[in-house]
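Q: Hi! First time asking for a complex rather than a single chain. Here are the components, and I think there are two in total. Is that enough to go on?
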Amino acid sequence: MSGWRPAAGGRIDRHRPIRFSFNGRDHIGFEGDTLASALIANGVDLVGRSFKYHRPRGIVAYGSDEPNALVQVGNGARSEPNLKATQVRLVPGLVARSQNCWPSVRFDLGAVNGFIAPLIPAGFYYKMFKWPAAAWPLYEKLIRNAAGMGRAPSLPDPDRYETVHRHVDLLVIGGGAAGLAAADAAPPSARVLLVDDQPDLGGLGTAADARVSGQDYVDWIRATQERLQARPDVTLLPRATAYGHYDGNLVGIVEERAGTMRQRRWMVHADRIVLATGAFERPLLFGDNDRPGVMLAGAARHYLHRHAAVPGRRCVVFTNNDSGYDAAFELHRAGVEIAGIVDARAGAGEDATRRAAAAGIPRFPAHRVLRSHGRRRVAGCTVQPIDAATRPVRLACDLLLTAGGWTPAAQLFAHAGGRLRYDEEIAAVVPDPASSPLVAVGACAGAFDLASCIAAGRAAGAGEAVPAPAVTIVVEPSPAPLPRTAKQFVDLQNDVTEADLRLAVREGYRSVEHVKRYTTLGMGTDQGKLVGLNGVAVIAAAQGVTPAAIGTSRPRPPFAPVTFGTMAGGFVGLAAAPARTTPMHGWHQAHSAFFANVGSWRRPQFYRRNGETDVAAVNREALNVRRNVGLTDVSTLGKIDLQGAHVAQLLDHAYVNGWATLKPYRCRYGVMLREDGIVLDDGTTTRLSDDRWFMTTTTGNAERVLANLERIRQIDLPDLDVTLTPVTEQWGAMAVAGPRAIDLLRALSPDFPVDTAALPFMGMAEGRLAGIEARVLRVSFSGERAYEIYTRSGEALAMWQAIVAAGGPFGLMPYGTEAMMTLRIEKGLFVPGFEADGRTTPDDLGVSRMLSTKKDFIGRRSLTRAAFTAPDRRQLVGLMPVDPTQAIPRGAQIVREVPSAPLTPIEGNVTSVTFSPNLDRWIALALVAGGRAAVGERRIAASPLTNEFVPVTICNPIFIDPEGARLRD
Amino acid sequence: MAEFSYGGADLIRPVGGPPLDPASPPGEAWDDFVYRRDNAAGAHTELWFHAAGCRRWFAVRRDTRTNVILAETEA
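A: Yes, that's all I need. Here is the structure of the assembled complex.
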């Protein structure tokens, strides 16, 4: 246990101590601490176990790049897994636990994986556990239980989330030196939004005592922030992470909040975006570089300065650039003994060399760290010259800092098409300014000198050209990988070692995208922020090419994990999927209706009575329609009002049949095609007068048909005098169907004529029914004599209730969509989505006699395609089981014999199935090759998944009343 | 339901020509219209429908590589 807290310093409030619990043990931290800084200050080294090998792990980084310290925070409904301790704000009563270890992080049974490590390199699950094949489900279960991170909460989330939308002139992502300068330089009237993921502005790249324009940086921050806060159109947003950049300069941002609104998502549409996201430090590779106590040099500096948490007492710094020296000097000043600075370069900057000498810090130029030593914590390391294989030196230390150079945090730049290019001098990728509207400034553009960061920020904020940065940091590439040594981890979170990458290359994976996915390099919750270029260097070395030739894998949103709660925002519970209900919805609910969703509509499937089963309810309803009379709610049908002198021409173009001869007060059934000749929809259109028409469509196609008609009206036939208005919601509709329907309606309203002379089949009448204005269409979906009654939706419930009240003497029962389906299947009527499945032509469905030969219509030209006239086309037929007691399986395939050979030709499929209470047997509609010529022949309805093979006879799809006598009178 | 829905490439529907003969196949021009597309990496003109709004069909010229909208016109 080597972390400690000095008596003074840090930006914590020592007057406000905070008690928290980690792995069941209580500790004290302070306001201003993160969980990570408080753990370090309390001397807790061991924070977790690695994903695959269950190796002990400690804190490595400072922010969202932390790979190891994944914790589960909280209990019950608010429990949250996979949080990085570096990003958890310390609050009173915080309870946190390590993940992926059992029974404890100190003694974890999973560590046995370390002993079988040679059997489980990256990608092992592609190569092992293949025998016996039948055991794979067991293997998979064991492997999944052995791996994994935290536990998702199993209770509903009690917190609120919301999404706000903003339009701004300038969005600045990153509130460090460059970002603050950019916001400050925005034109006076500009709407500006600046986001930063830290609680305070100023960023992580500049020391508090750096000098800017004659003042300390910390004072410069304060002055700039005051100026920004004084501007009414500037919003400063700390504790917020920009997670994705999307087309049209849309940026998604998640803001952490306290209280019952847990997170707020900002969707920002920006005219200009300045990216000032800084850079991530890279670690250096050596054997056992994952031991607790190995940390990034920059992170150690932040813990010291911001939190007064020092991660060790005797430190070795391994670096390949001057910034490692800054860490050594600052820790030295704070009281840490520096055992040595191991510099991969032969010579350091003059200033650094001089200061090291003055402080008495031993330097090891042109040396590397071979490996770390220790059990659960670093106790020392072995150091050796890079070129000569002379005797290695052992240094004792409890803290090993690495400083491998800086990688611009340019992920957002690449999200929406921006390209990154390799810069040899800093050995990292930088944004290519020509490839994206985003303007990258500061460290994320590869500039590390404070003056040029601020100058670039000012230029970008003002909308001017950004000056090229001066090169101030030269990074020596990492030393070539060591052969045959202890594991060198490239990706700490997913346990991917340098040996895994070389193995992948040996196995033939070349592209960085392939190696990434095969080894899972950089695919953890840290999204490989520490990983990218180290991995690229290893892959390049293994292939004998330069890192520039390999490139980096493409970053994609989100930059950091985003919770589902944030994405859902307010669209949860009832607001998750708006439900469309009909005017009779309350009545259905009150009468034990069982509902299903048809698109976004809630429709009653059946009405359950007196403890009957679902099937019994459906059969009762379907039987009753053919024997007495049934009432069903068809308000969901699409409805369109058409007006104008040329409506008939529009309909002629949309439907396959002709409309000019339709007289007022008459309805006609129509079928619509797509341009490729496939059936799109069917419906009934009624002529109300010379220039007014009323169309219905199927529920599911209402919007599609309207779009189609508008397309015809606006593009295909723009000179027609036609107006279209969707009126689906303006009209309620219900069907009264059955042999006694006419008696019911006569009893309901003796003055409304419903006999065939006044209202023939396919006719329309208007008037008052039950005292309510109604339009009545004599059309039928059930095959019984039926009346579709349309009223204003505000009066539909009253009409429904009046019919119900009058229905008793006639045996009226309401029926739902299931009985509706049974009835239409009995009548062989096709339905889009079942028989009209996107592959069927009018002839397939048996309606080719409707095709007009006198006019063009959508899809007509496609119908002469050779494939559509082939004799073996699948045609709509009926099926009956040979054994009347057998059911026909849903979705069954039609074959000639029970399949015995591996490949059995399929001749068709069952499209709709029902038990027919009116025929007392199962029936089905199917599409069968050459079906119409095969009526009377036998086939097998095969469902191998349910092991059913039912012999069936092909028959006429109209099972009941094929002549339609019941319809017409 | 989204505010706008996509309506495919903006092409002119072939009309006219010889009288529609039920026995003759559709022909190259019709097959091009129904099935064949250029799939250019670059500017592409397509139709959109303002479904949850004014119900207007309009044409958009979009760069398929960057999704930048270059122009909007009447259909």
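A: The helical segments of chain B are 28-34. Let me know if you'd like any chain examined more closely.
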